[in-house]
Amino acid sequence: MIISDLNILFIQRVITGYRLELIKELANYYKHVGIISSKGNTTGTLKIVDYSSATDEYNNLSIFLLSSIKIQYRGESRETSLFFYPKSLKFINNYDIIVFEGTTNIINNYYLIPYARFLNKKVIFWDAGYSLNKRTLKRKIIDAFNIPLLKLSHLQMAYSNLAKSYMEKYMGADNVFVNLNTINTSYFDGISKEIYSNAKSYKLNKNDVQLLYVGIVEERKKIKELIEIVLQLNKNSKRFSLTIIGSGKDLENLKREYNLNFEIKFIGALYDYDKLKSYYFNSDLFILPGDGGLAILQSLLFGLPVISVKGADGTELDYIKHKPFLLNNLNELPLLLENIESIDRLAIYQSVSDINSKNWMDNLNNKIAELV
Predict the structure, then answer these.
(1) What is the pTM for the complete model shown?
(2) Residue 75: helix, strand or coil by DSSP?
(3) In three state form, how does the secondary structure of 283-330 look?
(4) Residues 175 and 151: beta-carbon distance below 8 Å
(5) How far apart are CA 236 and CA 230, in angstroms?
(6) Contact between 251 and 266 (Cβ < 8 Å)
(7) How confident is the model at residue 14 (pLDDT cuts 50, 70, 90)?
(8) Domains of the chain
(9) Whole-angstrom Cα distance, residue 37 to residue 26?
(10) pLDDT tens, 183-211?
């Protein structure tokens, strides 16, 4: 059977904007693409995207937005929500390949994966593994619950090389492949010459270093800690400024606390790449102080070097080639910033310039072709 004859279904807790932009492109390859999603939250990481334009663009793309029971969950580094939606059972029979969001959707996976196997569907378990240094008791218990689910899956798709190793060692994965967590890169492909030119002409002004953060503003992102580092560095001389783009439940509190510090700027949420572009082009470094991952790739694709703590989501070890910009912990950031003399922005950009979301799709499609 060929790919174009197959129907593929993705089961997610919530269909976010960055995930939809990636998955919808599979409609160019498959007979039909479906996405199951809960209604999500009104704000934050689990805010559902407006998907009307995507379904208008592709008549072979369907998004099933299901009512759910929301269960609050305190994870290892974040407070999040699990969504229980048994109505998803009725959709599985219409698809040949089912791609399950992994550990973060474990409640649904425990009845959906066995049901999919009962119907002789091909099952792919898509997971981020575990990237924190210390494997906690809670995580060990979660892994034990995941093992039978991975044994029922035909393929396991890992976010990163770190995730692949972890899934093999602790989660029972026996047919796992790496498909680096990514975003739709078509926008960056279209402005590649502009990005290259900006990176080539870049020069660092050591007396006026512009730092950037783009993403959700929540405790797990450690934005407050990053602000305090910048303010501490600037006590002797005002060398650093930090622009924070994004919304989240901690935004207003941070704005009230730091509104008198001129070197800290809060922009709010911006989703339009054309509006974000100038911030990336006019910054010196992107800082990821806490949890995350896709922000790393987005920044690098804009040509902006990234400093990240290890354990962000595992992909930092794959995407950040300039190893001094990988921190064991946030306490290493002040010394690194104080001693930066130059940044080879062009070399850093060229290290990721060949990353393309089509590679992600081709990798998945090739594995599915082998499976069917």
Answers:
(1) 0.91
(2) coil
(3) CCEEEECCCCCHHHHHHHHCCCCEEEECCCCCCHHHHCCCHHHEECCH
(4) no
(5) 11
(6) yes
(7) confident
(8) 3-184+356-371 (3.40.50.2000), 186-350 (3.40.50.2000)
(9) 17
(10) 999 999 999 999 999 999 999 999 999 99
